[in-house]
Structure formats: C-alpha cells, structure tokens
Amino acid sequence: MKTRKNILQNIALLTLILAGFISCEKDFASIDSDVVNSDNATNFSTDILKFPVRTYNKKITPFQTNGLPVNLFGFYNDPVYGSSNVNFVGQMTPTAYNPTFGDNVVIDSIVLTMPYFSRNTETDEDGNKTYELDSIFGNSPIKLSVYKNNFFLRDFNPDLEFNATQKYFSNGSSSSNDIINVSDLEGQLLYQNDAFTTSPNEIRLTTIELDENGDTVLDEDDNPITNITLRQSPAIRALLDNPNDTFWQELIFDKEGEPQLSNQNNFVNHFRGLYIKAEAIDANGTMMLLNLSTSATNITIYYTSDIENDDDTGTDTEADTEAGQFVMNFSGNSVSLYDNNFITIPDGDTVNGDENIYLKGGEGSMAIVELFKGTVEDENGAQVDAFEHFKNSFRVDNGDDTFTQKKLINEAFLEFYVNQDFMQGEEPDRIYIYDLNQETALVDYFLDQSTSSTQINAKILHLEPLRRVNDEPNGEGIKYKVRITEHLNNIIVRDSSNVKLGLVVTTNVNSIANYSSKNEDDVDGVKQIPDGAVLSPRGTVLYGNNTSNEAKKVKLTIFYTEPDN
Q1: Per-residue pLDDT tens for 106-136?
Q2: Helices (H), ranges, 341-462
Q3: How far is 440 from 443, CA to CA, in rounded Å?
Q4: Interatomic CA distance for residues 226 and 205, integer angstroms
Q5: Pseudo-torsion of CA 381, 387, 392, 398, nearest 10°?
Q6: CA 319 to CA 102: how far, in whole Å?
Q7: How far is residue 321's CA from residue 302's CA, in Å, rounded to a whole number?
Q8: Is-contact 405 395, C-beta < 8 A?
Q9: Closest CA to 328 of 110, 483, 122
Q10: How far is it between the farthest Cα atoms of the chain?
Q11: Which residues, other chains included, contact 272 with Cβ-Cβ below 8 Å and sequence gap of 6+?
Q12: 63 vs 171: CA distance, rounded Å
C-alpha cells in the first residue's frame, strides 16, 4: 500500500509536468542537455544545483589474473607513471585426444599463432585484405621469448574448501606466502626474437605450383607461379624450435596411445604449457592485448607420416605419405604476470579529498568518489549537510517509509577535468564508474542503450568519452562527463544508499566483469577490480575536489524541474 501511494504521488507530479509541456506553444529550448527552459513554460520552472564531492586516490593492489577474457602482453612506458612489463604463462590442450599419427612421423614445422585485435578495412579484387590494428600501445621493438613452462598451474586451491578455485594474482602469487618462481617458468627455450615488432599486414602462406612431373610451373616471364594456401589476420606468428630434433617428437608423437594424450588432466600435467616473455630493448616498447581463448591462438605442429591403405585386391597394403596437423589451444589455465616500475602514487586523503586523482590501469591507481560530502548553503543562508539538503530539496518524508517527490531530476552529472600539467596527450578515451558496495555498474549504465561493438561508441550517454581539444582524435584531453541521473533518482525515490563509487580507466566499457583484489580486507571496500582497468596500460591525472582551480574542481551538477505552486 505504501509503495502504491508513493507511485500515485509521483504520477501526479509527472502529470503536472506533462501538462506544462502540452500547454506550451513555443518550441522547447535546452539547457546543456535537453532540460526544458523555464522561459517557455508557465506552470513549472527549471534550475541548477551543485553539490560537493570528495575524491581521493586508492592504490590498486595485486589482482587476480587467471581467467581473464583477454591478456595484456609486452612492455609499455607510460609518460606519466612509468613502465610496466606483462608476461603470461598458459596451459595448452589438444583439440583432440587419443590421436593416431601413423608411422615414420617427420615433423615439418611448429608454429605458434596469437592474433592481435584488428579490423578488416579493405579487400581488393584478389582477396587480399588490409587491416587496422586495435589495442596496440606503443610502436617500439621488444624482445620476445617463448619457453616451455615447468610450473604446474592448479585449478583448485588445496588450502580452501572442496572445489575452491585457485586464484593467481598479478604479482605472481597464489597466497600471501606462495610466489611463482620465475626459474620454474623458463624451461626449454623454444623461440627468441631480439627485436620483435607488431605488423598490420595480412599473413599469407604460398606454395610453388608444380606440374605432374614435380617440376616448377613458370609464368610468361619465367617466374615461378605461386598459390596462396593460407590467409590469416595479423598476429604474432613464431616458428618454434625443435631442440635437438627430438623435443616435440618425444613430447607428443612418442606418446601415441599413452595416458598422457588421453585427457586434459593428464595432458596439462605432461605438458604444462608455455611461458611467453617480453623484455624492453629501449625506453618505449609495445604493449598489446591478445585473446588466448580463441581457437586461432594455438600451436600447430605440421608433420607427415606413413598411412597404410588397402590395394585394389584387398590382400596387400601399401604405405602413403600424408600430411597431418596436431593442434593445441590455450584452453587451460593462464596467468598474466605484472612487473611495474611506477612513480610513487600518493596515498589518498580520505578526509579532505585530493588535489589530483591518479587513474592508472593494471596494478596502478583508482579513485574513490563520495557524493554529497561537505556542506552547502540552504535557503536561509546557513551551512548544512550536503546530503541532507539534497534529500530535503527533492522529496518530502511522509513518515511512513514513503516519500513524495518535490522536484524532478532531469540530469545529474560529474565532470572530471584532465590536468594537462601532468599529461602529454596520451590519455585513455574512457573511464568507468561503479558501485563499490555492490561491485557493479550503476543503474545508468544498464539503462544506457547506446550499445556498440566498438567500445569508443558504447555507453556514451552514461560514460561520455574523453572530450579533446578541437575534437581531434589525438588532441589534448579536456574532460570526462559521467551522468548519474538514475543513480540519484534511486536515492530520492527508493531511498537507496549513498554508496562509495569507484573510478577507473578502462579499455572497454562493454566489459564490466570483476576480478578479485588480493587485499580482501580493504577499508574502502575495494575487493574487486573491473577487468577494463586490469587490462588498461594507460593512465591519466584528473583534478580532484581539493584543488584551488575552482573551474575544474569535481562537482556534482543537477538540472531539475519544479512545479510552480
């Protein structure tokens, strides 16, 4: 009954407002964001209120990195924060168990493929594709090494209750005392490139055309005719070594019919996967996002073997040489390992807020945002608690756990200005705000219908992308705008809690899964880190609430409509 009463009261208010819309003969004007101008209305008015916000820094402690949707890899030197090196170790499993290889196996090649995120921008008449790489940070060479991993990645934690999943953290730990020894990761060296660089080129494999006698077919200019046998999108493509010519033979082919190749558990204990390592060779480097979960990320062993076939009489057999493939995917456990050399990020001032807030992805820094922290001046000129003034301004407490809304919130937003005294034009395009208490996005996120497979165009109503000078893609950043209209309406209408909010940089606003922080007893309630922050190598510096620059201080701005009495 209480809920019904509240609903009816709100309906009455909305009816009054709509009546004002209908009665107006002029076109409606807007104030910053589609708010009705009081000059055009006769029975309601609009206005603006601003409320104080407290923002302070929070260091991101080591976080869970096994089970990530994608993996960072490489070396990146942030111009503000310093360098970060990310390697990963991953289990591999075959695409089929209990394989039959045939006799006299001869290994042709062992190829590791790890595609980049890329977009096909053009295809010519011959089928050749042009690509544009995505999620590549930097363009300098790095040293790339691939090792056979000797460390066993557990699926379950033996120290916890039955079937508790084992967590591995960004600093290489699995508990407070258990740290992965790097020497256990660096087994047999299988590949090394001292100056690896990314390339946007399509991967094409060709073969020389042969006639029935096995001779090379030539074109009219006496050049060999070639045929394209494989096309792949841009990727790390490494030809792995076969140490002593026996490594892969003993690891895979000699185990035909043995338990090692019979199921996943046996296989990952037999072959514990790869450790892929990046090292800086200059001050810049390159960081990239790789999708280990796709089937295109694999090791493919190309080989030939003798296969016996019946002859025409069905009595004798003859051996044919046939080509085969043995494919392994990164479908088991995988862990990203972070090694950072960052500047000292100051501890946050939880009482007064900070002059600047430092947002850095990975094992970097985030901000805590507390709305309505401080005092404001009321109608009588007295300083009163900001949160109480907000509630009293927008609703009437009926005394029976119901409320009557006095004013309608048209739009509420926070603006975070970039401090260009620190930045050098490499700011991330997106930031993400979330409820620290519930460890989830705000209701405004879920109501934002501006969805897109391209993250720069997704959720742009709630999380407006970085506004840059002259709207140039590489221009200096000006500000981020975060709309929290429905979050505040929930406080007014449904008496929701005024919870602490977390603010982070993100690589993808479409991806909002959380990963555990190692510090589960955090006093600010930061027990989960959004994966977009985990996977972002970039950072930015924003003005906080405790800055002397009044124009760029963080404030909460509310546009509202109020019926005229």
Answers
A1: 999 999 999 999 999 888 888 888 999 989 9
A2: 386-394, 443-447
A3: 9
A4: 10
A5: -150
A6: 10
A7: 13
A8: yes
A9: 110
A10: 108
A11: 91, 148, 149, 150, 151, 152, 153
A12: 8
For residues 456 and 62, which has the higher predicted lDDT (pLDDT)?
A: 62
Q: How many CA atoms lie within 13 A of 563 on its CB side?
A: 14
Q: How much helix, strand and coil, in percent to the nearest 5, is found in the chain?
A: 15, 40, 45
CA 245 remoteness from chain centre: 40
- Extract the runs of DSSP E, i.e. beta strands, from 343-393: 356-360, 365-371, 375-377, 383-385
Check if the beta carbon of residue 101 is closer than 8 Å to that of residue 324: yes
Indicate the length of the chain as a whole number: 565
Q: What is the DSSP string of 325-364?
A: EEEEES-S-EEEEEEEEE--PPPP-TTT--SEEEEETTTT
The CA–CA distances, whole Å, from 322 to 105, 245, 310, 325 equal 10, 20, 15, 10
Tokens of 558: 């509310």
Alpha-carbon gap, residue 465 to 508, rounded angstroms = 11
Token pair 């072959």 is found at 271
What tokens does 14 get? 């909305």
Angstrom distances, CA of residue 152 to CA of 185, 268, 276, 560: 9, 8, 15, 59
- List, in order, residues 6 or more apart from 455 with CB less than 8 Å away: 430, 507, 508, 509, 510
Percent of the chain scored above 90 by pLDDT? 59
**pLDDT tens readout for residues 523-537:** 788 888 999 899 999
274 - beta bridge partners?
A: 90, 148
Question: Is-contact 335 89, C-beta < 8 A?
Answer: yes
